[in-house]
Amino acid sequence: MKSNLFFLAITMVFNLAFLNAQETPKLPPPPPPAETIQPPAPPKPPSMENEDTTRISLGDKQILIINKKAKKNSEDQTDAERELEDKLDDVKDELEAAKKDLDNEKLEMEREKQSMELEVEKHHKADKHNENKAPNEKRKYKTDKKNKAANVDFLDIDLGVNFLKFGNDIPESTKDDLKLKYWGSWSTTFTFLPTKIYLGTPNLMLMTGFGWRIGQFEFKEKLDFEPNQTLLYAKFDNIKKSQFVVHQLQIPLSVYVQSNKIKGLGRIGAGFGAYAGLLIHQELETSTEKPKRSIETEEDFGFEDFRYGLSARIDVGAIKLFANMDMNDLWKDRDIRNIECGLWFDF
Predict the structure, then answer these.
(1) What span, in angstroms and rounded, lies between the C-alpha atoms of 164 and 223?
(2) Residue 51 counted as domain residue
(3) Predicted local confidence at residue 247, as pLDDT
């Protein structure tokens, strides 16, 4: 019995040893989650060995020209295929030329931009240099700029009213008959090319020009004057208007002093001089009530052929005044002189 138990125990030991000697197989890993499974990459397309690709950039756009090489021999190509291939080559050449032109224009624009920046910088430095000049240099520049010998303008206009000054030997009745309507007795003088000749400084000058004077003398009384006579007239109630119109050419010459500009006022100036003129035309204009007529008689009415006198001018800012006084008689052998005064304008 003991021998059987011993034999059984030995048998169990050998069985256990045999079982431990066998390697236990490992379990396979769990399958990955469905989200991590990547699809297989598609196969790469075969390379096009018979293609010629040209890339051209025009601004922000790119143009690709793929010129497939003919798989056929030139003998096997048709005329249409050869013509199409030639046109594609021409388009390719034109696009390449356009690209070169664009590149050249872009380069030229960059050069012009740099040139303009250099010019602006140069002017900025020049302005800064002028600001840093000494005060005496600035004063010298202004003086040289103002030192002109003369100045010629376009036109001066004197617009005034005529007054008659009678001598002591003129009868009172004649004075009453020759009284003027002041608002109808205008004096207008156009001085063409008025010239200012500076006498060493812009504030002192000689003023002259070429003048054309139109003088009007309208009488309060209803007078009809006899042509080719001097102040020979008659009164008619039928006359509505009686007026002389006289044209004269004259040369003025005066010395004029003018200040610099005054803030809020402008310039102040004054001048004194003389004038001399020549009679070129005289006429009598009359109009009647019944019948209504307007008559212009261009004859000699005894006006002096020459005119000369003294003149004065003054201006304060925009207000310019003048006065002229004849030194000779208005009519021949009559002690009657003319005085005119009013405003003058320069352009």
Answers:
(1) 17
(2) no
(3) 98
Give the domain range for residue 167.
Answer: 148-346
* H helix or E strand, kind and range, residue 136: helix 135-146
- Which tens digits make up the pLDDT trace of 261-291? 998 888 999 999 999 999 999 999 999 998 8
Q: What was the pLDDT predicted at 144?
A: 47
Does residue 122 lie in a domain region?
Answer: no
Amino acid at residue number 71: K
Residue 6 lies in a domain: no
Please report, as a single letter, which amino acid is at residue 60: D
Please, are residues 74 and 85 in contact by the beta-carbon 8 Å criterion? no
- Residues 322 and 314: their CA atoms lie apart, in Å, by 6
Contact yes or no for 270/316 (Cβ under 8 A): no
Using CA atoms, how far residue 325 sits from 64, 67, 274, 343, in Å, is: 95, 101, 9, 15
Report how far apart, in Å, the C-alpha atoms of 48 and of each of 41, 52, 68, 78, 267 are: 20, 9, 9, 23, 91
Domain count, the chain: 1
* Stretches in the chain below the pLDDT threshold 70: 1-77, 129-147
In the prediction, which pLDDT does 272 show?
Answer: 97
What backbone torsions phi and psi does residue 27 show, to the nearest 5 degrees?
Answer: -80, 145
Q: In the structure encoding, which two tokens stand for residue 303, read together?
A: 């006006």
Which residue is listed with tokens 């004065």? 312
Report residue 156 as tokens: 């001066």
Q: What is the pLDDT of residues 180-234, one digit of tens each?
A: 999 999 999 999 999 999 999 999 999 999 999 999 999 999 999 999 999 999 9
